[in-house]
Amino acid sequence: MALKVAIVGLPNVGKSTLFNALTQTAAAQAANYPFCTIEPNTGDVAVPEPRLDALAKIAGSKEIIPARITFVDIAGLVRGASKGEGLGNQFLANIRDCDAVAFVARCFEDDDITHVEGRIDPLSDLEIIEMELMLADLESLEKRLPAIEKKAKTGGDKDAANTLRLINLALAQLREGRPARSAKVDPDDEKAWHMLQLLTSLPALYVCNVEEGSADKGNKYSDLVAERAAKDNAKAVVISAQIESEIALLDADERAEFLETLGLEEPGLNRLIREAYNLLGLQTYFTVGPKEARAWTIHVGDTGPQAAGVIHTDFEKGYIRAETIAFDDFVKLGGESGAKEAGKMRAEGKDYVVKDGDVMHFRFNV
Questions:
Q1: Which of 147, 103, 145 is nearest to 126 (CA)?
Q2: Does residue 101 contact residue 200 with C-beta atoms inside 8 Å?
Q3: For a disulfide at 208, which of 58, 69, 104, 222, Cβ 3.0-4.6 Å?
Q4: Is residue 35 pLDDT above 70, yes or no?
């Protein structure tokens, strides 16, 4: 399952520094001037999953393969981006290809790093970005509206009529100054709603980039963002991008020691990745054997066949059953043999709703 999260924000808020830390590379040029990111950089990031290590150890797996998310570093947007200001519309298009948006807000003061608006106000930063995305969505829908209205009225096209209804639903939100994600969309309309490719319908995560001394508990600026997130029914994560970029260069022992000196239990990036994963309504199941232990990404509520289809479409088409063991049982009973002897291995059919942490072996016939 290919998942992409856009890292979005004004220039000089720490997006590229955050991206570099996420991917543990220097692929994105972090510099103190606007638009230093000219093309969107992408990087695949492993989803932190300590359970996978435990399973691999029990099964003696030669290889460990975690689930992954792709992060996309979008160039800094500015006021007027929807009208082509700065680097404008080309980067709005890059966001459309993503599954979620991580809004990075500058929550630190530093006279050596300029702010494109000349002040430190993370809520205003977020409002500028959100407004530009809303204006882009509004323009896109209003351009499409006449043709869709004509098709729906004259052609008797049910799909066009349904699309028109959803466009009007989105426009009602946008014209009131609210993002499209504020609309209540029926589950049956989710696919068609997604096809509208609205920037503001994407799930949003607020990332508060703070100075080193506030990495553990945040500061007055991140507190404001957290309040905003609570009102928006969103999530906010506190991170010091600079610290994370330093942590990324350390080995495991050095990293643990460094985190301890800062009073942190884990890197902030772990929380960010986990929240992005949760934001998209995802969960993990595992396949385990001598060759490899692997984490697979599925949606919460997916059935056995749907989970099997993530590995290969033939698995879904020919699904017979899934020999399933809960993670806790697998660990407690020392693996597949112990779980089977204790009666904890279950044969689950096509209607089984997969649970997070299930260890599964699929039986299929094609």
A1: 103
A2: no
A3: 222
A4: no
The answer for residues whose C-beta is within 8 angstroms of residue 240's C-beta and 6 or more apart is 108, 209, 210, 211, 212, 214, 215, 268
* Cα 174 off chain centre by: 23
Q: How far is CA 310 from CA 195, 268, 300, 328, in A?
A: 21, 29, 13, 23
Distance CA 129, CA 127 (A): 5
The neighbouring-strand residues paired with 44 are 70
The string of pLDDT tens digits covering residues 332-349 is 999 999 999 999 999 999
Residues 137 and 200 sit within 8 Å (Cβ to Cβ): yes
109 touches 8 (CB < 8 A) = no
| Cβ 77 vs Cβ 10: under 8 Å | yes
* Lookup: tokens for 299: 């949606």
Tokens of 165: 């209804």
**Nearest Cα to 285, choosing from 271, 268, 302, 269?**
302
pTM of the full structure: 0.82
